[in-house]
Amino acid sequence: MPQTDTTDVTTAPQLAIFTDFDGTLVELAETPDGIDVPESLAHQIEQTAREMNSAFAVLTGREIADIDKFLSPLILPIAGAHGTQRRRADGVVEEIDPASLSGAEAIARAIEPLIQAHPDLIMETKEGAVALHFRQAPELEDVVRHAMQDAVADNEHFTLVPGKMVLEARPRGVSKGEALRAFMREEPFIGRTPIFIGDDVTDEDGFIAAQDLGGVGIKLGDGDTAARMRIADVVSVRALLQGLGDIAARDREFSPKH
Ligand SMILES: O=P(O)(O)OC[C@H]1O[C@H](O[C@H]2O[C@H](CO)[C@@H](O)[C@H](O)[C@H]2O)[C@H](O)[C@@H](O)[C@@H]1O
């Protein structure tokens, strides 16, 4: 009878985890500042990130400073403002193209009169990007679209991206996909298998990038997607992160090198 070769121990792939923030790590709320961030979230992410050897990053439409505030005292690698900002795992924050900074300021100035006329609209001005929210006034969606189209019309550097009850102006060439690829060229992400979890249209670039690099995109909720997998809700995302962390810890415990 042939002998089974037990010396060839196959180990599970080492993962790099990327997640969106709003609608994925936390439930959506009526306003950007109104989200409920459970106290346990930062601690749970910190644990999972530790099991991933710190290969855990947030790819978000929010500014990096926003995520730092919500996950304090945790300081993670983050791509903010849809990839316009990027803080690497070594803590270095990349310089933003000055044309992105001045362009976003000009777009915000152009939108300001609309905010004065419609106080239910919320404008978020970010480093290098602008979000115009109409969740409080859904009937103004067309008004918002036309105003944002006019605001970026003179600036080829910017493009518009839709989100959940929001329209955002961001620089061309930046995306969550590009941010994920950049992280994957660096320690501690390099050589790992990327997983990206997100819920929105702007997460599609991230799903595609993760899958191009041999990993998996996981879409939360319904809707067309390039992601190969789906997950039901925020609670399930947190359970998945916990589970992946536990598996990584167990793999290390039973690893032949341990
Ligand atoms: O990429 P994400 O982390 O999902 O960020 C996308 C945008 O999220 C925030 O807006 C969304 O969440 C708000 C709070 O739940 C909600 O009120 C709003 O309608 C959503 O669009 C954030 O305010 C934006 O800056 C992000 O770009």
TrEMBL record:
Its EC number is 3.1.3.12. One of its GO terms (molecular function) is trehalose-phosphatase activity. Its cofactor is Mg(2+). Keywords: Hydrolase, Magnesium, Metal-binding. Pathway: Glycan biosynthesis; trehalose biosynthesis. It is an enzyme of class 3 (hydrolase). GO terms for biological process: trehalose biosynthetic process. PANTHER family: TREHALOSE 6-PHOSPHATE PHOSPHATASE. This is Trehalose 6-phosphate phosphatase. The gene is otsB.
